[in-house]
């Protein structure tokens, strides 16, 4: 009889041990998953911001090489980028030639990333100049090429305007902001793009 009591006690003790081990494993799994999701979303946001930065520089260079200046829009060829946030926070960006329906390259953000700086169903369009109607002072230390500058839809040079494109993760709210800066200086307002930390 003493032997059967000892066996029952041992089984109960084993269940308690098992419950403690399962509890510890659940706690470890919870914190590991949280860490993994946080690391993944940070990496995705950082990587997407870097990709957009390089994409902007690529399109700027493309406009310098292949853009065609002209006095009228019919004579001009220019390149631009559209940042788009659709319904359900789907976000994408694409490059175009001359008009934003002539799409060259298109990229979508991951399902758990979106452009938080844009409202749903809105876009931000930035395009480079092909307008010969404006004069720019020439920096003696930097080659000044009007095809490197940004213009608005009517071909007017954009100065002292900053565009902000913020990429945000839905999981933990981690975000990075890309700034396209056209601050005016003595020699013009050449756009610079950088990631705000």
Describe this structure in words.
- There is one protein chain.
- The chain starts with a helix and ends with a strand.
- It has 1 helix and 9 strands, in the order αβββββββββ.
- The protein is elongated.
- A hairpin with a 5-residue loop joins β2 and β3.
- The chain has one domain (2-196).
- It has a 5-stranded antiparallel beta sheet with strand order 3-2-1-5-6, with helices on one face.
- By secondary structure, it is α+β, with helices and mostly antiparallel strands.
At a glance:
It is built from one helix and nine strands, in the order αβββββββββ. The protein starts with a helix and ends with a strand.
The largest sheet, given as strand count, sense and whether it forms a barrel, is: 5 strands, antiparallel
Our measurement of the CA-to-CA distance between the termini, rounded to an integer number of angstroms, reads 72 Å
Secondary-structure element sequence? HEEEEEEEEE
Query: Which regions have little confidence, pLDDT < 50, spanning 5+ residues?
Result: none
Percent in strands: 25-35%
Number of helices: 1
Number of strands: 9
What strand line-up does the widest sheet have?
3-2-1-5-6
Helical residue percent?
25-40%
Count of all domains:
1
Mean pLDDT, to the nearest integer, reads: 83
Rg is: 27 Å
Shape, per Cα inertia axes: elongated
Structural key phrases:
197 residues, alpha+beta, five-stranded antiparallel sheet, 9 strands, 33% helix
């Amino acid at each position: 009889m003493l032997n059967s009591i000892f066996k029952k006690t041992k089984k109960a003790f084993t269940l308690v041990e098992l419950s403690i081990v399962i509890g510890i494993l659940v706690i470890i799994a919870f914190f590991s998953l949280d860490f993994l999701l946080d690391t993944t979303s940070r990496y995705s946001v950082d990587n997407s911001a870097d990709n957009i930065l390089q994409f902007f520089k690529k399109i700027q260079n493309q406009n310098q090489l292949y853009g065609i200046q002209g006095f009228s829009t019919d004579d001009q060829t220019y390149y631009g980028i559209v940042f788009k946030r659709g319904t359900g926070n789907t976000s994408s960006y694409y490059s175009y030639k001359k008009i934003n329906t002539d799409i060259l390259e298109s990229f979508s953000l991951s399902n758990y990333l979106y452009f938080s700086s844009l409202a749903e169903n809105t876009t931000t369009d930035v395009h480079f100049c092909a307008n010969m109607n404006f004069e720019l002072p020439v920096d003696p230390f930097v080659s000044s090429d009007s095809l490197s500058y940004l213009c608005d839809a009517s071909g007017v040079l954009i100065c002292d305007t900053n565009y902000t494109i913020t990429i945000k993760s839905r999981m933990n709210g981690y975000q990075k902001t890309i700034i396209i800066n056209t601050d005016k200086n003595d020699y013009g307002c050449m756009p610079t793009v950088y990631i705000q930390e």
